[in-house]
Amino acid sequence: xxxxxxxxxxxxxxxxxxxxxxxxxxxxxxxxxxxxxxxxxxxxxxxxxxxxxxxxxxxxxxxxxxxxxxxxxxxxxxxxxxxxxxxxxxxxxxxxxxxxxxxxxxxxxxxxxxxxxxxxxxxxxxxxxxxxxxxxxxxxxxxxxxxxxxxxxxxxxxxxxxxxxxxxxxxxxxxxxxxxxxxxxxxxxxxxxxxxxxxxxxxxxxxxxxxxx
Length: 213
Known about the structure:
There is one protein chain. Helix content is 25%, strand content 23%. It has helices at 15-23, 42-51, 108-111, 176-181, 188-211; strands at 30-31, 40-41, 67-71, 74-75, 83-90, 94-105, 123-130, 137-139, 145-150. Strands 3, 4, 5, 6, 7, 8 and 9 form a seven-stranded mixed β-sheet that branches. It has a two-stranded antiparallel sheet with strand order 1-2. It starts with 14 loop residues before the first helix and ends with a helix. The relative contact order is 0.17. Residues 170-175 have low confidence and may be disordered.
């Protein structure tokens, strides 16, 4: 078991973020901003898509096809596409059912190797904040073209208005930290200290958010 005594406990500690990095469960790293904009996390883009904080009647994919999200899909915290069983109405194609993958940048699709993984052949839409590659499509492992939707031009709220920590996403499912903790022997003091660190990190994250306003 990880020895928490090696981490400082005076004041607000950043130990939680350090521990996540050591355990290899950091999935949502902050991405640099695009063309001078403030950096954001992929989880924020997921919240925007899931909550449909967009001008839904104006949507068009990067190839100019009009689109409407009938259902954003079920939030997935396991491996594979970010949202499963989504339903999207595409102009000229009708209702298409499948999965949705979300990234900050369009180039993250290839950077993460999704174009080589069969598990992502079920993706019907690649949702990104910014299309940094200017491409109309990405390609899956089967060689099929997947349309892209860049949310940056369709936002109907300010990014700093969304609190990812309080977003009601996948409440019934455990996250990556829960999966790790479930494999450890139960020790109340250890878990209590770990949760204290997690609380500190949440406060520090909120402070960073307000400092950027």
